[in-house]
Amino acid sequence: RYFCGDVYSGEWDFDKRHGEGKLLYAKGDWYEGQWLKDHKSGEGTQVYTFDGMQYSGEWTASLKDGYGKASWNNGDEYEGHWGVGRRTKEGVMRYGNGDMFRGQWVNDRKEGGGQMVWASKQCYEGEWIANKCNGDGRMQYPNGDVYYGQWVRSKRTGRGMLRQANGDKFE
């Protein structure tokens, strides 16, 4: 037991958590998994009481780092790569409302190539910057219309073509 109220049970090496162990935080969070010289390192699971997040996967220096899965109380789920505690590289985010994003992440943001499918069946495939459709992309609307072209901050702009479901084309 620590002075702050946290409780650790598991393996030790030279007064440091090392090997397999479980840490119960005084505020209600907990971590169970591998430790290396007092840091979460290797495979482990952490549950956070603040937002209900549960993460299971790889850790380095007490940060989510490598492949892992996370879920939240609101039904959101992420599976993919993490770096320095944030979603990065390839990953799939399924939102509790039925939306889904599959693609590139940088620092917890959609960044690079990716596809977003909304619960409404609207679908965008293309480039992203800072969680916004940005660059070349293709949006298919629930009514069957399809727009190919340039996007800036999730708005159609510049060159593009709209092909309506009835076959009409506008450039």
Overview of this protein structure:
- The chain is an all-beta fold.
- 0% of the residues lie in helices and 67% in strands.
- A 15-stranded antiparallel beta sheet has the order 1-2-3-4-5-6-7-8-9-10-11-12-13-14-15, with no helix packed on it.
- A hairpin with a 2-residue loop joins β1 (7-13) and β2.
Q: Notable features of this structure?
A:
15-stranded antiparallel sheet, 15 strands, 171 residues, elongated, mainly beta
List the helices and strands and how they pair.
Elements lengths: L6 E7 L2 E9 L5 E7 L2 E9 L6 E7 L2 E9 L5 E7 L2 E9 L5 E7 L2 E9 L5 E7 L2 E9 L5 E7 L2 E9 L5 E2 L1
Could you give the count of β-strands?
15
Q: How helix-rich are the residues, as a percent range? A: under 10%
The order of strands across the largest sheet is 1-2-3-4-5-6-7-8-9-10-11-12-13-14-15
Class based on secondary structure composition and strand pairing: mainly beta
Flag low-confidence runs.
none
Report on the biggest sheet: 15 strands, antiparallel
Average pLDDT: 96
Query: How do the SSEs run, as a string of H and E?
Result: EEEEEEEEEEEEEEE
Describe the global form.
Answer: elongated
* DSSP strand content: over 45%
Please, how many helices? 0
Distance between the termini: 68 Å
What is the radius of gyration?
Answer: 21 Å
